[in-house]
Write a structure and sequence with these properties.
Length: 493
Amino acid sequence: MTVTPPRPRLAAPDESRAVPRSIWSMAFTELWERFSFYGLQGILSFYLLYSLDKGGLDLGASASAGIVGAYGGAVYLAQLVGAWIGDRLVSPKWVVLWGGVIIACGHVLLAAWPGLTGLGVGLVLIILGTGALKTNITSIVGFLLDGQPDAKRDAGFSYFYMAINIGAVVGPLSTGFAQNQWGFHYGFGLAAIGMLAAIVQYALSLKKLPERAGQVNNPLPSGKLVAPIGYTLAALAVIVVSSMAGWLTAENLSSVVTIVALVAAAGYFAVILTSAKVTSGEKKRVSAYLPLFLLSGVYFGFLFQKFTAISILITERVDLDIGGWSFPVAWITTVSPLSAVLITPLVARLWGRLGRRQPKPAAKFAIGLIQIGIAYFFILAVSTVTGHGTIPLLLILAFMALAGSSEVFVGPIGLALATKIGPAKFRAQMVGLNFLTLALGSSLSGLLGQLFAAIPSTAYFTIVATSAVVLGGALLLARKPLNRWLYAGLDAR
């Protein structure tokens, strides 16, 4: 009798893929949202710095750095609130949708309402909407990658992060060209169009999201709504009174946001580490994440100087004229995310091939810090050689590429780590904490930009470059015990 051998089992549709197909839908949504966000941020510094005859607001270097740093910090600080809403009040998929609508309204106002009032109202709406959208869409990506080995999780988040950087490239390229040709408000209008595209892309994918995306993970009992509402009204009252009394100024906004971010981070860590709902293994992992959290904040402070200190340097010392044509100033900052986009597939493939032999998170963070430190040593050498003269455009572009490509060792790794090691009852809050490193980085970049305006550039770049390399080296030395704690009770696949 002939025995027919059993047919080999066919892999499920997503089983043989590098990442699940639905990751790409979230990635394209994020791409368009980042198109609008970075499209605005690419020209915002120069809108504040440029003189009135060039269409700017002529606020000066210190005030401009303070506003840009505070805006970026507040955007990411608001994501803690968005994470809490998505965890306690409204399911993540709906928080993302309504956040996108609020962001779009902010961009439309910026485009249509010139002056400081339109700037203020528009930026506040973008802060609120981005706070709702960012952490919740990242949580949805984490849901899609649940149960995957580390190599596939890191690859999935790397491609998701690559979409972020593609938006960060195409956005400023588009808005920078529009600003260069027709004025700042045409650039703001293009950012609004990008956000509308993000809303459409996301709406089309709603039915394909995992079931968990439509559930409130830890619902807040209706009787406990009074306290959050009271805290919100109290915070608004403090902001209004401080503004009317003149306590909040453009120059001190970054300091205020930095303090608020640090206090919020301390509060979140304290709640997680003292909660009875968190196991001892989970507490050990969160404790090990704390130094990476702080170093990540410092790293992004150095990276985001492209919007503060480096923008001031470009305005004062870089010749943008190329054969009678003015190189769009926003295109310079675009080189940073573009370099990250180009290197991401190579690094993701490297992590996939190395598998269990790839560097653990602490080592990857260290590599990123050391590389950005080297980038600042490069710009230090350029600044020293040129003295007070003009800096060639090509050298600034090279600095941007070297600094920007270091992000692949920090940004996506932090995202993947937060969704993996977070306690089960605080997963959304861990994602919010991870984005809080960007809040610290943004507000820190504002403070650094103000320092840059106050001391010689060579002294400034020496401080930044040395700090980055020393911190990266120290983290590299401490990587083994730190990584053991990060994976306490987990399979470090």
